[in-house]
Amino acid sequence: MAHPESLSPMAQMFEEFDLTTEHAQHIFGINFEPLNHVLKQLPIPFDISVNKAVFIMWLSAFLSFMLIFYAGRGRGLVASGLRNAMEALFQFVKFDIVDTNLGHEGQKWLPFIGGLFFFILFNNLLGLIPAGFSPGSNINVTASLAILVLFAILIAGMKKQGVIGYWLHLAPGGLPKWIYIILYPIEVISLLAKPFSLAVRLFANLLAGHIVIFALLAMIILFGIYVAPLSLAFGVIMYAFEIFVAFIQAYIFAILSSVYIGASIHPEH
Amino acid sequence: MEGINLAHLGSGLAIGIGALGPGIGVGVLVGKALEGMARQPEATGTLRTTMFIGVAFAEAIALYSFVIAILLFTK
Predict the structure, then answer these.
(1) Global ipTM
(2) Around Cβ A244, how many Cβ atoms within 10 Å?
(3) Chain A closest CA to B39's CA: distance in Å?
(4) How far apart are CA A31 and CA A29, in angstroms?
(5) Cβ of A201 and B66 within 8 Å?
(6) What three-state secondary structure class fits A184?
(7) A31 has which bridge partners?
(8) Segments forming the whole domain that contains residue A147
(9) Is residue A152 helix, strand or coil?
(10) Contact list, B60 vs chain A (CB under 8 Å)
(11) Structural domain harbouring B68
């Protein structure tokens, strides 16, 4: 970390702009300080105190559960209102994401993929509310989600082919023996690269969008009030694009997870 | 001071050069997908899904260079 005086004005503002919200004590008017005090005393090696990102994640988990729960309670042939909206989204997840990639085993993986989709979607959308925070723009959150997907890939493959069979069939068969010395490490690396790219993709997409909006608005402070109309107009355009990105990234994360799990269930040899 | 300036220059170069290849890749991808959709409108759904997966892979490469750029910028 460089000394503040040696940074450019933009980099200084970037430093002051609290990306991690570590110091947030009052989150939307709720004081989490007593709870954090208790959580910091726990005999575990991590700090699990509540900050804004954790709160937004609780909120999005709660929202995605309650919306589907209430929408699922509706009865009758004709859906309307909330049930109609959630039914459209859920049908999209079931038919376009899960069933096309996982086939008839899609039903088993639908809760996992659907949970990922709705959790990431609500995370992204709640991060777009002013004073909100996008938990996906923190690498720890996306890495945890991607590690879940890695476990899902491994469990799906091991259930299908057995624990030893899965690792034996990681590299395609029928090749000369010496090639496996090179091929097997490559296959293991490609297995680990899948969750890595999932995590970095979601993280960098959200962070990039937020930084672009921040940079556009920071130009008002850097260059004076006269650029305000232009930078506000571009900020609004980027904001609209961010709403699109929120949907597309949830879709990409869900569909890539189901493609990876599907490739693990139906190996191509 | 010198090091900071060089880091900022490197951050700009990282994202600028790193976005070149994925930009070309996404252009080719979407163009080819559109071509396919125009020829076979009934395959639009499948083509769009596959196109999004491909775009996500191409985009990830640009995002790696973006992460490097951010690391250099906040150095």
Answers:
(1) 0.81
(2) 10
(3) 22
(4) 6
(5) no
(6) helix
(7) A26
(8) 4-265
(9) helix
(10) 197, 200-201
(11) 3-73
